[in-house]
Design a protein that fits this description.
Elements (H helix, E strand, L loop, with lengths): L5 E7 L3 H12 L4 E4 L15 E2 L8 H19 L9 E5 L2 H16 L5 E4 H7 L10 E5 L3 E2 L5 H13 L2 E3 L4 E7 L2 E6 L4 E9 L18 E11 L9 E3 L1 H6 L16 H8 L5 E4 L5 E4 L3 E4 L12 H14 L7 E12 L5 E5 L3 E5 L5 H16 L2
Parallel strand pairs: 1-2, 1-11, 2-8, 4-13, 11-19
Antiparallel strand pairs: 3-7, 4-6, 5-6, 9-10, 10-11, 12-15, 12-16, 12-17, 13-14, 14-15, 18-19
Helix pairs in contact: 1-5, 1-9, 2-9
Length: about 375
Protein backbone atom coordinates (compact mmCIF):
# COMPACT_ATOMS: atom_id res chain seq x y z
CA UNK A 1 0.00 0.00 0.00
CA UNK A 2 1.29 3.44 -0.90
CA UNK A 3 1.91 5.68 2.08
CA UNK A 4 1.08 8.76 0.06
CA UNK A 5 -2.63 9.52 0.35
CA UNK A 6 -2.54 12.98 -1.21
CA UNK A 7 -1.88 13.51 -4.93
CA UNK A 8 -1.92 16.26 -7.48
CA UNK A 9 -4.36 14.14 -9.51
CA UNK A 10 -6.45 11.08 -8.73
CA UNK A 11 -8.05 9.24 -11.65
CA UNK A 12 -10.93 6.82 -11.33
CA UNK A 13 -11.02 4.29 -14.19
CA UNK A 14 -8.12 2.43 -15.81
CA UNK A 15 -9.37 2.43 -19.40
CA UNK A 16 -7.88 4.43 -22.23
CA UNK A 17 -9.11 7.85 -21.09
CA UNK A 18 -7.96 7.37 -17.51
CA UNK A 19 -4.65 5.88 -18.62
CA UNK A 20 -3.74 8.73 -20.96
CA UNK A 21 -4.88 11.40 -18.51
CA UNK A 22 -2.41 9.82 -16.10
CA UNK A 23 0.29 9.67 -18.78
CA UNK A 24 0.06 13.34 -19.72
CA UNK A 25 -0.12 14.49 -16.10
CA UNK A 26 2.93 12.44 -15.17
CA UNK A 27 4.82 13.88 -18.13
CA UNK A 28 4.12 17.30 -16.61
CA UNK A 29 5.67 16.23 -13.32
CA UNK A 30 2.43 15.72 -11.39
CA UNK A 31 1.89 13.03 -8.76
CA UNK A 32 -0.86 10.70 -9.98
CA UNK A 33 -2.91 7.91 -8.45
CA UNK A 34 -4.93 5.68 -10.79
CA UNK A 35 -7.75 3.61 -9.27
CA UNK A 36 -9.40 0.67 -11.04
CA UNK A 37 -12.40 -1.18 -9.62
CA UNK A 38 -11.63 -4.54 -11.28
CA UNK A 39 -8.59 -6.83 -11.25
CA UNK A 40 -7.92 -5.50 -14.75
CA UNK A 41 -9.91 -2.99 -16.79
CA UNK A 42 -11.75 -4.92 -19.49
CA UNK A 43 -14.55 -2.81 -20.95
CA UNK A 44 -14.69 -0.73 -24.16
CA UNK A 45 -10.96 0.08 -24.19
CA UNK A 46 -10.28 -3.63 -24.72
CA UNK A 47 -13.31 -4.88 -26.67
CA UNK A 48 -12.62 -3.00 -29.88
CA UNK A 49 -10.74 -3.31 -33.16
CA UNK A 50 -7.64 -1.50 -32.08
CA UNK A 51 -7.56 0.80 -35.07
CA UNK A 52 -6.14 4.32 -34.91
CA UNK A 53 -7.92 5.89 -37.89
CA UNK A 54 -8.16 9.70 -37.82
CA UNK A 55 -9.50 9.45 -41.39
CA UNK A 56 -12.90 8.48 -40.00
CA UNK A 57 -13.25 11.42 -37.62
CA UNK A 58 -15.27 14.58 -38.21
CA UNK A 59 -13.06 17.10 -39.97
CA UNK A 60 -12.87 19.44 -37.01
CA UNK A 61 -11.01 19.16 -33.75
CA UNK A 62 -11.63 15.38 -33.59
CA UNK A 63 -9.68 14.77 -36.77
CA UNK A 64 -6.89 16.79 -35.19
CA UNK A 65 -7.15 14.81 -31.94
CA UNK A 66 -6.80 11.65 -34.02
CA UNK A 67 -3.66 12.90 -35.72
CA UNK A 68 -2.18 13.99 -32.41
CA UNK A 69 -3.03 10.58 -30.94
CA UNK A 70 -1.18 8.84 -33.77
CA UNK A 71 1.92 10.87 -32.95
CA UNK A 72 1.60 10.11 -29.23
CA UNK A 73 1.23 6.38 -29.95
CA UNK A 74 4.21 6.33 -32.28
CA UNK A 75 6.42 8.39 -29.97
CA UNK A 76 5.56 6.14 -27.02
CA UNK A 77 6.22 3.06 -29.14
CA UNK A 78 9.80 4.32 -29.47
CA UNK A 79 10.15 4.03 -25.69
CA UNK A 80 8.23 0.81 -25.06
CA UNK A 81 6.37 -1.73 -27.18
CA UNK A 82 2.72 -0.82 -26.76
CA UNK A 83 1.77 -2.87 -29.88
CA UNK A 84 1.59 -0.04 -32.44
CA UNK A 85 1.88 -1.25 -36.02
CA UNK A 86 2.01 1.40 -38.74
CA UNK A 87 0.12 -0.59 -41.35
CA UNK A 88 -2.15 2.03 -42.87
CA UNK A 89 -5.86 1.93 -43.65
CA UNK A 90 -7.73 0.90 -46.79
CA UNK A 91 -11.19 2.22 -47.58
CA UNK A 92 -12.82 0.07 -50.27
CA UNK A 93 -15.72 1.49 -52.28
CA UNK A 94 -18.45 -0.89 -53.42
CA UNK A 95 -20.24 1.41 -55.88
CA UNK A 96 -19.74 4.60 -57.86
CA UNK A 97 -21.28 6.77 -55.15
CA UNK A 98 -18.84 5.56 -52.54
CA UNK A 99 -15.99 5.99 -54.99
CA UNK A 100 -17.04 9.60 -55.50
CA UNK A 101 -16.92 10.08 -51.73
CA UNK A 102 -13.39 8.64 -51.66
CA UNK A 103 -12.32 11.03 -54.40
CA UNK A 104 -13.78 13.99 -52.52
CA UNK A 105 -12.28 12.76 -49.27
CA UNK A 106 -8.84 12.53 -50.85
CA UNK A 107 -9.08 16.22 -51.73
CA UNK A 108 -10.24 17.13 -48.22
CA UNK A 109 -7.26 15.23 -46.81
CA UNK A 110 -4.92 16.98 -49.23
CA UNK A 111 -6.25 20.34 -48.03
CA UNK A 112 -5.33 19.26 -44.50
CA UNK A 113 -1.90 17.91 -45.45
CA UNK A 114 -2.95 14.36 -44.56
CA UNK A 115 -1.40 11.86 -46.93
CA UNK A 116 -3.69 9.54 -48.87
CA UNK A 117 -3.74 7.92 -52.29
CA UNK A 118 -6.60 6.93 -54.54
CA UNK A 119 -6.52 3.63 -56.42
CA UNK A 120 -8.61 2.34 -59.27
CA UNK A 121 -10.50 -0.93 -58.93
CA UNK A 122 -7.77 -2.75 -60.85
CA UNK A 123 -4.99 -1.26 -58.73
CA UNK A 124 -6.87 -1.98 -55.50
CA UNK A 125 -7.35 -5.63 -56.48
CA UNK A 126 -3.71 -6.00 -57.50
CA UNK A 127 -2.63 -4.89 -54.02
CA UNK A 128 -5.47 -6.69 -52.24
CA UNK A 129 -6.20 -9.82 -54.30
CA UNK A 130 -8.41 -11.24 -51.54
CA UNK A 131 -11.09 -8.62 -52.29
CA UNK A 132 -13.87 -9.80 -54.58
CA UNK A 133 -13.81 -8.24 -58.02
CA UNK A 134 -17.53 -7.57 -58.22
CA UNK A 135 -17.42 -5.62 -54.94
CA UNK A 136 -14.51 -3.27 -55.59
CA UNK A 137 -14.96 0.03 -57.43
CA UNK A 138 -11.74 1.52 -56.11
CA UNK A 139 -9.93 2.34 -52.91
CA UNK A 140 -8.29 5.00 -50.78
CA UNK A 141 -5.15 4.18 -48.79
CA UNK A 142 -3.93 6.24 -45.81
CA UNK A 143 -0.37 5.13 -45.04
CA UNK A 144 0.14 6.95 -41.72
CA UNK A 145 -2.63 5.17 -39.84
CA UNK A 146 -1.98 2.32 -37.47
CA UNK A 147 -3.38 -0.58 -35.56
CA UNK A 148 -2.87 -1.61 -31.95
CA UNK A 149 -3.69 -4.65 -29.90
CA UNK A 150 -6.44 -3.46 -27.54
CA UNK A 151 -5.94 -6.48 -25.29
CA UNK A 152 -2.47 -5.32 -24.28
CA UNK A 153 -1.96 -1.66 -25.19
CA UNK A 154 -3.43 0.02 -22.10
CA UNK A 155 -1.79 -2.52 -19.78
CA UNK A 156 1.63 -1.88 -21.31
CA UNK A 157 1.25 1.89 -21.05
CA UNK A 158 0.22 1.55 -17.41
CA UNK A 159 3.19 -0.71 -16.57
CA UNK A 160 5.51 1.75 -18.31
CA UNK A 161 4.12 4.58 -16.19
CA UNK A 162 4.52 2.60 -12.97
CA UNK A 163 8.11 1.65 -13.79
CA UNK A 164 9.39 4.84 -15.36
CA UNK A 165 7.07 7.77 -14.52
CA UNK A 166 6.13 7.11 -10.90
CA UNK A 167 2.46 6.24 -11.31
CA UNK A 168 0.72 4.90 -8.21
CA UNK A 169 -1.91 2.33 -9.12
CA UNK A 170 -4.51 0.34 -7.21
CA UNK A 171 -6.72 -2.30 -8.81
CA UNK A 172 -9.65 -4.05 -7.10
CA UNK A 173 -10.34 -0.64 -5.63
CA UNK A 174 -13.92 0.55 -6.27
CA UNK A 175 -14.49 4.19 -5.38
CA UNK A 176 -17.85 4.66 -3.65
CA UNK A 177 -17.81 8.40 -3.02
CA UNK A 178 -16.06 11.55 -4.11
CA UNK A 179 -16.64 15.03 -2.77
CA UNK A 180 -14.94 18.35 -2.29
CA UNK A 181 -13.67 18.79 1.24
CA UNK A 182 -11.19 21.31 2.66
CA UNK A 183 -10.83 22.77 -0.82
CA UNK A 184 -9.67 19.53 -2.45
CA UNK A 185 -11.27 16.22 -3.42
CA UNK A 186 -11.75 13.34 -1.02
CA UNK A 187 -12.33 9.83 -2.37
CA UNK A 188 -13.52 6.87 -0.34
CA UNK A 189 -13.25 3.27 -1.52
CA UNK A 190 -15.28 0.18 -0.72
CA UNK A 191 -12.32 -0.98 1.41
CA UNK A 192 -12.71 2.13 3.59
CA UNK A 193 -9.57 3.72 2.18
CA UNK A 194 -9.44 7.47 1.82
CA UNK A 195 -7.43 9.30 -0.83
CA UNK A 196 -7.11 13.01 -1.50
CA UNK A 197 -6.43 14.88 -4.72
CA UNK A 198 -6.06 18.49 -5.71
CA UNK A 199 -7.99 17.36 -8.80
CA UNK A 200 -9.96 14.22 -9.60
CA UNK A 201 -10.89 12.84 -13.01
CA UNK A 202 -13.77 10.38 -13.26
CA UNK A 203 -13.28 8.25 -16.38
CA UNK A 204 -15.43 5.34 -15.32
CA UNK A 205 -17.00 4.31 -18.62
CA UNK A 206 -20.58 3.14 -18.83
CA UNK A 207 -20.98 2.71 -15.06
CA UNK A 208 -22.63 6.07 -14.42
CA UNK A 209 -25.02 4.96 -11.70
CA UNK A 210 -22.54 4.76 -8.80
CA UNK A 211 -20.46 7.93 -8.57
CA UNK A 212 -22.29 11.27 -8.78
CA UNK A 213 -25.13 9.78 -10.89
CA UNK A 214 -27.01 13.07 -10.76
CA UNK A 215 -24.38 14.56 -13.06
CA UNK A 216 -24.99 12.09 -15.92
CA UNK A 217 -28.26 13.22 -17.54
CA UNK A 218 -29.86 10.42 -19.53
CA UNK A 219 -30.90 12.89 -22.23
CA UNK A 220 -27.24 13.63 -22.95
CA UNK A 221 -25.81 10.11 -22.88
CA UNK A 222 -26.55 6.74 -24.40
CA UNK A 223 -24.92 3.33 -24.33
CA UNK A 224 -23.94 1.52 -27.50
CA UNK A 225 -23.71 -2.25 -27.74
CA UNK A 226 -21.37 -3.59 -30.42
CA UNK A 227 -20.99 -7.14 -31.66
CA UNK A 228 -17.67 -8.40 -33.01
CA UNK A 229 -16.18 -11.77 -33.80
CA UNK A 230 -12.82 -13.43 -34.25
CA UNK A 231 -12.28 -15.80 -37.17
CA UNK A 232 -9.91 -18.76 -36.99
CA UNK A 233 -6.17 -18.13 -37.50
CA UNK A 234 -5.16 -18.40 -41.16
CA UNK A 235 -2.61 -17.27 -43.70
CA UNK A 236 -1.63 -13.64 -43.28
CA UNK A 237 -3.35 -11.71 -46.07
CA UNK A 238 -4.67 -8.51 -44.46
CA UNK A 239 -1.73 -6.15 -44.15
CA UNK A 240 -3.76 -3.05 -43.20
CA UNK A 241 -6.90 -1.91 -41.47
CA UNK A 242 -9.76 -2.65 -43.88
CA UNK A 243 -12.81 -0.37 -43.95
CA UNK A 244 -15.57 -0.97 -46.47
CA UNK A 245 -18.51 0.65 -48.24
CA UNK A 246 -20.84 0.75 -45.27
CA UNK A 247 -18.04 2.36 -43.25
CA UNK A 248 -17.69 5.09 -45.85
CA UNK A 249 -21.42 5.69 -45.47
CA UNK A 250 -21.18 5.77 -41.65
CA UNK A 251 -18.02 7.57 -40.59
CA UNK A 252 -18.27 11.26 -39.71
CA UNK A 253 -15.45 12.45 -41.96
CA UNK A 254 -17.35 11.51 -45.11
CA UNK A 255 -20.30 13.67 -44.06
CA UNK A 256 -18.10 16.63 -45.06
CA UNK A 257 -17.99 15.44 -48.67
CA UNK A 258 -20.13 17.49 -51.09
CA UNK A 259 -21.84 14.38 -52.45
CA UNK A 260 -22.66 12.77 -49.11
CA UNK A 261 -26.19 14.15 -48.85
CA UNK A 262 -27.02 12.86 -52.33
CA UNK A 263 -26.07 9.20 -51.99
CA UNK A 264 -28.73 6.56 -52.58
CA UNK A 265 -29.16 3.73 -50.11
CA UNK A 266 -30.46 0.37 -51.29
CA UNK A 267 -32.94 -1.70 -49.32
CA UNK A 268 -30.17 -4.22 -48.54
CA UNK A 269 -27.94 -1.46 -47.20
CA UNK A 270 -30.81 -0.08 -45.12
CA UNK A 271 -31.34 -3.48 -43.47
CA UNK A 272 -27.70 -3.56 -42.40
CA UNK A 273 -27.70 0.08 -41.32
CA UNK A 274 -30.79 -0.55 -39.18
CA UNK A 275 -28.56 -2.77 -37.02
CA UNK A 276 -25.71 -0.25 -37.16
CA UNK A 277 -23.62 -2.69 -39.19
CA UNK A 278 -20.56 -1.59 -41.10
CA UNK A 279 -17.84 -4.06 -41.99
CA UNK A 280 -14.28 -3.76 -40.71
CA UNK A 281 -11.47 -6.30 -40.89
CA UNK A 282 -8.17 -6.55 -39.06
CA UNK A 283 -5.82 -9.52 -38.94
CA UNK A 284 -3.98 -10.15 -35.67
CA UNK A 285 -0.41 -11.38 -35.27
CA UNK A 286 -1.62 -14.96 -34.77
CA UNK A 287 -3.46 -14.87 -38.10
CA UNK A 288 -6.94 -14.60 -36.60
CA UNK A 289 -9.21 -12.01 -38.19
CA UNK A 290 -11.36 -9.60 -36.21
CA UNK A 291 -14.62 -8.85 -38.00
CA UNK A 292 -17.49 -6.53 -37.13
CA UNK A 293 -19.30 -4.58 -36.11
CA UNK A 294 -22.86 -3.59 -35.20
CA UNK A 295 -24.42 -0.87 -33.04
CA UNK A 296 -27.54 -0.84 -30.87
CA UNK A 297 -28.42 1.94 -28.43
CA UNK A 298 -30.26 2.54 -25.14
CA UNK A 299 -30.28 5.60 -22.86
CA UNK A 300 -27.58 5.76 -20.20
CA UNK A 301 -28.45 3.74 -17.13
CA UNK A 302 -30.68 1.35 -19.06
CA UNK A 303 -28.08 -1.20 -20.17
CA UNK A 304 -30.18 -4.02 -18.72
CA UNK A 305 -32.50 -3.49 -21.69
CA UNK A 306 -29.79 -4.92 -23.95
CA UNK A 307 -30.18 -8.30 -22.30
CA UNK A 308 -27.21 -10.63 -22.16
CA UNK A 309 -27.44 -12.31 -25.56
CA UNK A 310 -25.11 -11.99 -28.52
CA UNK A 311 -27.47 -11.98 -31.50
CA UNK A 312 -26.80 -14.76 -33.99
CA UNK A 313 -28.95 -12.87 -36.51
CA UNK A 314 -26.63 -9.86 -36.38
CA UNK A 315 -23.55 -12.08 -36.61
CA UNK A 316 -24.97 -13.85 -39.66
CA UNK A 317 -25.75 -10.52 -41.30
CA UNK A 318 -22.16 -9.37 -40.74
CA UNK A 319 -20.73 -12.63 -42.03
CA UNK A 320 -22.90 -12.55 -45.15
CA UNK A 321 -21.79 -9.00 -45.98
CA UNK A 322 -18.15 -9.85 -45.23
CA UNK A 323 -18.29 -12.82 -47.60
CA UNK A 324 -19.58 -10.47 -50.29
CA UNK A 325 -16.44 -8.35 -49.86
CA UNK A 326 -13.53 -10.75 -49.53
CA UNK A 327 -12.40 -14.33 -49.91
CA UNK A 328 -10.88 -16.04 -46.89
CA UNK A 329 -9.58 -19.56 -46.54
CA UNK A 330 -11.43 -20.08 -43.25
CA UNK A 331 -14.66 -18.48 -42.06
CA UNK A 332 -14.83 -20.47 -38.83
CA UNK A 333 -15.90 -18.20 -35.97
CA UNK A 334 -13.64 -18.90 -32.99
CA UNK A 335 -15.29 -16.40 -30.67
CA UNK A 336 -17.86 -13.65 -30.60
CA UNK A 337 -18.47 -10.94 -28.02
CA UNK A 338 -20.24 -7.71 -27.22
CA UNK A 339 -18.64 -4.43 -26.25
CA UNK A 340 -20.37 -1.48 -24.58
CA UNK A 341 -19.46 2.17 -24.53
CA UNK A 342 -20.98 5.42 -23.37
CA UNK A 343 -21.63 8.04 -26.03
CA UNK A 344 -22.72 11.65 -25.87
CA UNK A 345 -25.94 12.55 -27.66
CA UNK A 346 -25.40 16.32 -27.73
CA UNK A 347 -21.62 16.51 -27.88
CA UNK A 348 -18.67 14.43 -29.09
CA UNK A 349 -17.55 13.82 -25.53
CA UNK A 350 -19.27 14.41 -22.20
CA UNK A 351 -17.25 16.58 -19.82
CA UNK A 352 -18.34 18.33 -16.67
CA UNK A 353 -16.57 20.03 -13.76
CA UNK A 354 -18.13 19.61 -10.31
CA UNK A 355 -17.12 21.92 -7.45
CA UNK A 356 -14.01 23.07 -9.35
CA UNK A 357 -12.00 19.93 -8.51
CA UNK A 358 -13.97 16.94 -9.85
CA UNK A 359 -13.76 16.41 -13.62
CA UNK A 360 -16.01 13.99 -15.48
CA UNK A 361 -14.63 12.80 -18.83
CA UNK A 362 -16.89 10.24 -20.45
CA UNK A 363 -19.09 9.46 -23.42
CA UNK A 364 -16.34 9.59 -26.05
CA UNK A 365 -18.13 6.82 -27.95
CA UNK A 366 -16.48 4.60 -30.52
CA UNK A 367 -13.63 6.98 -31.25
CA UNK A 368 -11.80 6.38 -27.98
CA UNK A 369 -8.92 4.34 -29.40
CA UNK A 370 -8.33 6.83 -32.21
CA UNK A 371 -8.67 10.11 -30.30
CA UNK A 372 -8.22 9.63 -26.53
CA UNK A 373 -4.45 10.28 -26.30
CA UNK A 374 -4.80 13.54 -28.22
CA UNK A 375 -7.96 14.70 -26.47
CA UNK A 376 -6.62 13.97 -22.99
CA UNK A 377 -3.35 15.76 -23.81
CA UNK A 378 -5.32 18.93 -24.46
CA UNK A 379 -7.52 18.44 -21.39
CA UNK A 380 -4.55 17.98 -19.07
CA UNK A 381 -2.75 20.94 -20.63
CA UNK A 382 -5.74 23.18 -19.95
CA UNK A 383 -6.13 21.76 -16.44
CA UNK A 384 -2.58 22.75 -15.53
CA UNK A 385 -2.10 25.87 -17.61
Amino acid sequence: MYKNRKYDLVIVGGGIIGTYCAYHALRRGKSVLLLEKDAQPYEASFRNFGQAVPSGQALDSWFDYGRKSLKIYKDLQEEVDISVVKNGSWYVASDDQEMTLLEEMAQLFKDRDYTSRLYTATETLEINPHFKKDYVKGGLFIPEEASLNPLVMVHRVREFMIKHLGLHYHNLCPVISVEKKRGIAMLTTSKKQTFWGDQVILANGRDTQFLLPEHYPSAELKISKLQMMRLAPQKKILKSNILTGLTIRRYDSFKSCPSFSKIYTSSEQKQLQAKGIHILFKQADDGSIILGDSHEYVPAGEQANFGFEVSSEINEMMLAEAKRITSLENWTVDSTWAGFYLQGTQSEVFTKVVDDVIHIINGIGGKGMTTSPGFTAEYIQKLYS
